[in-house]
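FORM 12-B: Structure-to-Sequence Request
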């Protein structure tokens, strides 16, 4: 079954890219009499670009870091290019079919080479513009601020200033430039507590170690501590223990199905990732178990990478859950999918005393672009009942 599924994916991927390649050739080159002799070169370059991401995975151990990063960028950008190319080509086919019936544009004009070329140039400019904007957008994060009131006393603590960061995806695509910008912004907020809610790493920790990313992380300070939980990408690498080691080496306490009481004022619960059991073989502890020995009069804050199965924290009496994972689709219109998968794929959800905040993340996965959403740092002010 797995082999059949892989073959279907390869055929689908190949078919889509062949369609894009044919349309690009027809629109730009077929009307030039001497272009035909360059057709083999065109397809050779095109195939290398289309399969660059896959090829890079197989030969990455034999290439330098810079070449690996170039191939990764080329492949990732092509995935985004392919995505929007399919949308534009599909829209064009619909318009063309409709035009056959209503004749808004006369058929003799549509068949003109200059019309075909003009559409191809418009297509290339539009897709390129989307990629340029998406790249700029992904590199300009914003501070997303929330004010919450909790109907619980936190002993002598009246307010708590929390900064939450999720989905940085440090690795081949997201390196020290992105991390240093994050550190600068977090420091400027002067939080009481900092939390990282998963997918800090992107599959492996090699780039993190090579570029000594622990050093900028070690410069973070917060009176009530810096905490983290694992996400699904820490497990995809099959080395979650290494991720934990390097995070704690950077001064970040990783909570893996653990509960800590902070300053005698509130409970902080860090849950293992929902998908972790697929890799570790161990089911994560349920919230009732994690809270059974706790002082339930104190506010309870949960860190859980994925905002799934929200009935569990609601029934367990959790006051606030902080999550990430969704990227809010990252590339429009994928948010239509995340919006259906998750009850809340971004922002604040309030259900009685239970609050949920979902961040769409700071970094990117795959294409280093964002369309229809913004990278963010969550700046949260909590006011407790006197």
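FORM 12-B RESPONSE
SEQUENCE OUT:
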């Amino acid at each position: 079954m797995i082999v059949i599924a892989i073959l279907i994916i390869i055929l689908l991927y190949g078919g889509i890219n062949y369609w894009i390649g044919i349309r690009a050739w027809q629109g730009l080159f077929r009307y030039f009499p001497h272009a035909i002799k360059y057709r083999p070169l065109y397809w050779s370059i095109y195939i290398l670009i289309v399969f660059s991401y896959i090829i890079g995975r197989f030969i990455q151990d034999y290439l330098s870091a810079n070449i690996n990063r170039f191939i990764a960028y080329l492949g990732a950008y092509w995935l985004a290019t392919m995505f929007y190319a399919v949308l534009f080509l599909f829209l064009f086919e619909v318009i063309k079919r409709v035009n056959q019936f209503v004749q808004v544009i006369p058929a003799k004009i549509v068949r003109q080479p200059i019309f075909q070329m003009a559409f191809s140039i418009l297509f290339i400019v539009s897709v390129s513009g989307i990629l340029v904007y998406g790249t700029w957008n992904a590199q300009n994060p914003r501070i997303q601020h929330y004010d919450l009131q909790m109907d619980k006393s936190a002993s002598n603590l009246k307010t708590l200033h929390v900064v939450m960061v999720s989905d940085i995806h440090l690795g081949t695509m997201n390196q020290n430039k992105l991390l240093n910008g994050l550190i600068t912004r977090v420091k400027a907020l002067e939080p009481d507590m900092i939390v990282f809610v998963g997918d800090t790493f992107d599959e492996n920790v090699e780039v993190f170690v090579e570029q000594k990313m622990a050093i900028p992380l070690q410069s973070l300070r917060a009176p009530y501590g810096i905490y983290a939980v694992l996400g699904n990408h820490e497990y995809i690498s099959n080395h979650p223990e290494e991720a934990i080691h390097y995070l704690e080496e950077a001064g970040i306490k990783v909570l893996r199905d653990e509960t800590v009481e902070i300053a005698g004022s509130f409970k902080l619960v860090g849950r293992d990732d929902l998908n972790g059991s697929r890799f570790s073989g161990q089911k994560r502890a349920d919230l009732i178990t994690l809270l059974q020995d706790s002082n339930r009069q104190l506010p309870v804050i949960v860190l859980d990478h994925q905002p799934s199965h929200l009935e569990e924290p609601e029934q367990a009496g959790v006051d606030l859950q902080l999550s990430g994972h969704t990227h809010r689709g990252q590339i429009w219109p994928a948010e239509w999918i995340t919006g259906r998968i998750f009850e809340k794929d971004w922002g604040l959800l309030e259900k009685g005393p239970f609050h949920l905040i979902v961040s769409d993340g700071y970094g990117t996965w795959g294409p280093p672009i964002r369309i229809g959403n913004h990278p963010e740092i969550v700046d949260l002010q909590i006011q407790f009942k006197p």
